[in-house]
Amino acid sequence: MLGSRLITAIVVVVGVPAATVGYVALVEWLVGRLPFIWRRRLRPWLWAGPALAFLGVYLVYPMVYTFVLSFKNANSSKFVGIDNYKYVFTNASSLTTLRNNLYWLVLLAGAVVVFGLLFAVLFDRVRYEPVVKGVIFLPMAISFVAASVIWKLQYDYQPLGVAQTGTFNGLIVALGGQPVAWLVDRAVNNFALILVGVWMWTGYGMVILSAALKGIPVELIEAARVDGATEIQILFRIIIPMMGSTIAVVATTMVINALKAFDIVYVMTSGNYGTDVMANQMYKQMFLFNNFGVASAVAVVLLIAIVPVMLINIRRFRIQEALR
């Protein structure tokens, strides 16, 4: 066993770089013997060939195969048409996941943009700016699983009369209130999970928006103040309009992350108590229920929902590049 692992390690460490160098040398040797016009045409494709092949095998093929599986039954033995998609859009539990994903989409994207912009503006050009922004950005350095474990402890619930081990319920009981089962109570549990996502992603939004804020000419803001504009007017009539494209990028990025939310829900509730989301449902259908048809249909629906947002992002990047 140890010998086979050692051989595998040697192949990976030595063989892969050697194969890469050999491929490059072979390509250049072959291209060097072609006419100049063919060299220009073929060299980019030959250099990009391995990467394109890698994408085709590990991205395009699985995507197409998943699309095919979405029209088959649970064990992929026969075609069932659009029955799996009917299940996704008519089954009560599936409709709950769609509703929860909508919550994530609206609240996560909205809160990250709002709090990110708020912190970027409040701590812009103050002496302790690096320290405060570093603290706010710190959750981004924690994995989603670790953050979920931390917040699960914060939300911990004990019945009234028993010492509370969760931070939130400890504060509530200390102030004379009733403890709340944050992860079980269907009235608050989805919002409690989304709060974890907001806590993690706000630092990202703040950094991106802060960079855009520093790109606004100080003279423009000072001129507005001289003309009698209040800070609120400067924020809504100068800062936000000039940061519109960056705000859109942050918002669309958060929409993508909200649609594929999985880690937080899986670790904290496993999708129970009405907190399930589409990515978690896909995981359960495939690995717990062995229903590859429905799991593939959910994956395709997620892909279709994310693609337009990605295209909007790409279009905005192209517009920005054209303006430079």
Q: Give, in order, the helices and strands.
A: HHHHHHHHHHHHHH
Q: Beta-strand level of the residues, as a percent range?
A: under 5%
**Biggest beta sheet attributes:** none
What is the CATH-assigned architecture of the largest domain?
A: Orthogonal Bundle
Report the average pLDDT across residues. Answer: 89
Estimated radius of gyration: 26 Å
Could you please describe the fold and organization of this structure?
The structure is a single chain. This protein is mainly alpha-helical. The chain folds into 2 domains: 2-69; 83-323, Orthogonal Bundle (MetI-like fold). 75% of the residues lie in helices and 0% in strands. The chain contains 14 helices and no strands. Helix 4 (92-122) packs antiparallel against helix 11 (244-259) and helix 13 runs antiparallel to helix 14. The longest helix is centred in the N-terminal third of the chain and has 34 residues, at 36-69. It starts with a helix and ends with a helix.
